Amino acid sequence: MSGHENATNPTVERSFPDPYEIETPAGAEGWQDLYAYHNLFIVGRRKEDGAKTWFRNSLHFPEVSYPFDQITIDCAFAGTGVTNTRIYALPPAKGLDVRVVNGYTYMSALPSPEGEELQRRAEEFGPRAGHYFQNWNDLYADWEVRVKNAISAVKSIEVPLLTEFEPLEFVTKTRGATQANRLLENYFELIAAGDQIWTLHSEFLNLGYAAYLQFLLLCKLHFPELQDQTISRMVSGVDVLLFRPDDELRKLARLSEKLGVSEIIFTAKSEADLIAGLSGSAAGDEWLAALDEAKNPWFYFSNGSGMYHSHRSWIDDMSMPIQGIGDYIHRLRKGDDLSRPIEKLQTERDELVTHYRGLLDEEDVASFDEALGLSRTVFPYVENHNFYIEHWFLTEFWNKVREFGQRFVEWGFWEDQNDIFFLRRAEVVEAVIDLQVAWASGGTPQGGYYWPAVIKRRKEIYAALSAWNPPPALGPVPKDVSEPLTIMLWGITPETVDRWLTAQEGGASKTELGGFAASPGIAEGLARVVLRPDELDTVKEGEILVAPVTSPSWTPVFGRIRAAVSDIGGIMCHAAIVSREYGLPAVVGTGFGTTTIKTGQLIRVDGNAGTVTILNEIPVIN
C-alpha cells in the first residue's frame, strides 16, 4: 500500500516519524556532542516523550543550532515557561518541552491544566494580569528602562586583557580579584545576562497575546464566519518600533536626493566606501552625520531572526541598509510615494470596526469596545519587544561573546573569534579555567592542543546537519490542536497537520499550496526563493518573495516585491504583520513553499483565500 493511500484509509494509523528512530545524516555522526544532555531525546524517557507530538520551531529557529547559540533556545523557552507557569499562572497553558534532533529544534506543549487546577490558576491569574492591564503604559515605560539598562550592562562587560603583569595599582590599591578571576566572573555575568533577558522578553508578550486572543474569541463568538485576517485588521495601522529602521532608510534616501549625494551611495558597498566618498564636502558630511544619528539604535537590526550569532546586524555589516537606501532612491526617482499606507490601513480598520460594532446588540457593545481598546493598547508591545531583545540586545550579546572568543585566539586556542560558537557555553567555562591556570603560572594553556580538532570536526557535522531536510513534526498525530498561541504564532492547526501528513505520504499538490491568508490582495509574479539572509540581494523588482520565514529587518526588500510567501507562521507572525502594514498580499504557513516553488516560476499569491498557485512549472530565466 502506498503512503498516499493511508490518507484515505481510516484503518491505517497516520503518524510522523518517531523521534527515537530518526537516522543521523551521513557525515554527522556524533552530532549529540554539540548539545547538552537536556537538549536530547533520552532513551529512559522514550515511553513518555515518544507518545507526544513534537512540532519543529522553524519560525524562530529555522537553521541548525550552533553549540553556543543553544543559549537562545534554552533561555527563550525558559522565559516563556516561567512567565506562563510561575509568574502569571496563565490558566489554560503552561510552557513547552524542547528537544534537538539532528541540530533542529522541536517543541511539545505541556498538558493544559484542567478542573480544580485550572480554577486555582485562574484565581491566581486574575490579580496578576489585572495589575498589568490596568497599569500597562506605566509598567511598559518602566520595562523599556530596564531592558535598555540590560543592553548597556552587557555592552559594558569587560573581557580582561590578561597582561604580562597586574598593574602596580593592583598591589598598592586594588588587590583582590585578578584579571584571570575577572575573566571567569565576567563570562558568568555575560551568560547570566543572556539568560535573564528572556524573562524580560516574555514579561509583557504573553499578556499581549492573551489580550488579543480575548478580542479574537469575542469576535468569533458574535461572528463565527469572520476570518482571523479580518479581525487582525481591526488592530492594524498602529506604529511599532520594528518599522523604524526601515523608516530611517527612507529618510536617508530622501536626504541624499536633497543634498545631491545619491550617486556616491549607489556605488558604495560598505560604510568605509560611504566615508571615503562623502567625507570632506558639506553635503557629504551632513548626510554622514544623519547616518550616524540613525545608526544608534536603529541599525542594531539583525539580518535574520537574531537568534543565531551568524545573523549579523546592520551595525556590523552595512551592505543591506546601503542597498536599501539605494533602492529607495531609485523609487523616489520613479515618483513612488515611500510612506507606508498607514492612513489607508487606519481608514479600513475603522470602517471594519464600525461595521461589525453596528451589528452587535446594545448590551454587547461595551465588552467589544473594551476588548478592542485593550488589544490596541498592548499590540505595539507584541512587536516592539522583538526590536529590543532579538535585535538590539542580541547584537550586543553576540559581539561580546566574540570579544571572549578573540581572547582565546590571542592565546592560541583557535584561529577565529567565531570558533567559540562551536563550543557549548559550559565548555567555554572549561576553556576559561584552562586559560586562568596557564596565565596565572606563566605556562602554556592546553586549549591550543585540544580545541582545534574538536572545532574542525564540529564544523563538518554542522555542514552535514544543514544539508538534512527535517520533518515538520515528530511522533503521533495530535488528536487536537487548539492551543491559541500555537495557532496564531506558528500557524499550526489541524489543517496544517493534515497538509504535512499528505506531503509525507506523497499526496501533496505540485502546483497549489494552502496556508494562512495573512494579508489581503492578489498578486502574480516571478518567484524568488530566499533561504538565508545573505541571499536577499538577489531579489529583483516585482518578484514574489518565497522564504522559510521572514525577518523584520527584511522590510526594505518589501519595497521591491509584489507579495510574500513563507513556510511557517500564523496570523500574528512577523511576516503577516509586516505584510499587512505594507499593504502586500501574503500567505504564510504553507509548509513547503521553499521546497515546492522554484526561483523564476510564475506564481499567484491569493492573500484573501490563503493559496499560492504555480502557473508555470518551468522557471523563467531571470
From TrEMBL:
Biased composition (Polar residues) is annotated at: 1-12
Gene3D superfamilies the record matches: Phosphohistidine domain
What are the GO MF terms of this UniProt record?
A: pyruvate, water dikinase activity
Q: Which residues form the PEP-utilising enzyme mobile domain?
A: 540-610
What Enzyme Commission number(s) appear in the record?
2.7.9.2
What general EC class does the enzyme of this chain belong to?
transferase
Q: Where is this region: Disordered?
A: 1-23
Keywords attached to this Swiss-Prot or TrEMBL record, sorted alphabetically, are: Kinase, Pyruvate, Transferase
- Which Pfam families does the record associate with it? PEP-utilizers
**SUPFAM superfamilies named in the record:** Phosphohistidine domain (SSF52009)
Please state what the protein is called: Pyruvate,water dikinase
| Organism classification | Bacteria, Bacillati, Actinomycetota, Actinomycetes, Micrococcales
